[in-house]
Amino acid sequence: MSSTLAGPPGECCFTSVKHSGTPVGRVEELGGLNTYISEPPASVATGTHKKVMLFLADVYSPLYLNNKLLQDYFASCGFIVLGPDYFFGDTAANHVHDANRAGWIEGSRQPAINAFPKWLDAVKATYGTETTKYCAVGYCFGAPFVLDLAADGFLVAGAIAHPAFLEESHFEKLTAPLLLSCAEVDFTFGLEARRRAEDIMVGRKSTYHFQVFSGVQHGYAVRGDPNKPQERWAKEESARGIKEWFSRFAA
Predict the structure, then answer these.
(1) What is the pTM of this model?
(2) Strand order from edge to edge, sheet including 51-56
(3) Three-state DSSP class for residue 122
(4) Max Cα separation, the chain?
(5) 3 state SS of 212
(6) Which of 13, 135, 148, 211 could join 181 via S-S bond, C-beta 3.0 to 4.6 A?
(7) Is 215 exposed, middle or buried (CB count within 10 Å of its CB: 0-12, 13-18, 19+)?
(8) What does the radius of gyration of the chain's CA atoms come to, in whole angstroms?
(9) What are the tens digits of pLDDT across the range 172-201?
């Protein structure tokens, strides 16, 4: 029986420092889900193939300002970025004061899981060519979607940041290169779990890379405070590392 390595999102997932900036992407319906689409400017589009990044968001959804700005950053580096709202507009921001936040999180999982295959089929139909290269990054709630995709040959590379809902079996089935962007303090994916995940990947001779940031906690890569130097640096370095990881395998 597979053991749990990353548990569900918790109380800290309902707090956020909202960032500042003007998103440049657009929202369109794709495969039944509102999707944030951010495309690279012509000046940075390189190669003869499409590089598509699936952005699988935390409980604030890809339509949250912080996540839009993050997706725009990846697009500015040459990726077509697609972020599905598998929360159907009902995000953590609507449940900050709920008494049963855990119930909302658990109730959101199955509808997201059910909606994802149709959305993915629409992505393939819209953006797929013989040479399209797909990457996927998952933050918290989005991490298991990435690990599932990283097990079936679809991705050239995957990345997860402060993940939730992961089992040992996710790592036992891993075939794609994986970057893990982690907080030193993380109630969902702590030190023991990180080391167990690494042991599995070492045993399988997986291609992987860890980022572990001191002085930050779960959620830093999306909701870190830009006015705190360590949090700002960790957030920016996480994004840069993910970009470089994907650029390596999607070149």
Answers:
(1) 0.96
(2) 26-30, 33-38, 80-84, 51-56, 133-139, 157-161, 178-185, 208-217
(3) helix
(4) 51
(5) strand
(6) 211
(7) middle
(8) 17
(9) 999 999 999 999 999 999 999 999 999 999
